[in-house]
Amino acid sequence: MRIFCWALVPLLLLTSACATTRPTPARQDILQVLTSQTAAWNRGDVAGFMQGYWASDSLVFIGQKGLTYGWQPTLDNYRRSYPNAEAMGQLTFSNLRVEPLSATAAHVVGRWHLARPAVGDVGGHFLLVFRKVNGRWVIVADHSS
């Protein structure tokens, strides 16, 4: 009986590992937010890019210049930092890891890259905290470096 139980352990571990990587509606919805943000950014639409963020004074963005609270100040910072299409470049996200935390919370870890031939490429890593607010997945906290 002990041998039989020990033989089941690898099977149970494999099953639980597969369950964490299965596409779920939450993962799909969150990836769609990131896809929409990428499309908006790449057409030079910063306001459209911001639609992925929580339109609240409680939104927090953590970047190289410190903390920014609120949707409007975050939009203003993006517009200052990326005043035109040349500065914005073309955005790609990679190495995305979407981790649902509950039915209404998740985080995403990944890499961002801006291809900007005229002014030089930039990129880094990020941790996004998503919450489901009024039926929509939105970014409530963004730590990008």
TrEMBL record:
Pfam families: DUF4440. Keywords: Signal. Residues 30-139 form the DUF4440 domain. The keyword Signal applies. Residues 1-19 form the signal peptide. Gene3D superfamilies: 3.10.450.50. PROSITE patterns: PROKAR_LIPOPROTEIN. The keyword Transit peptide does not apply. This is Nuclear transport factor 2 family protein.
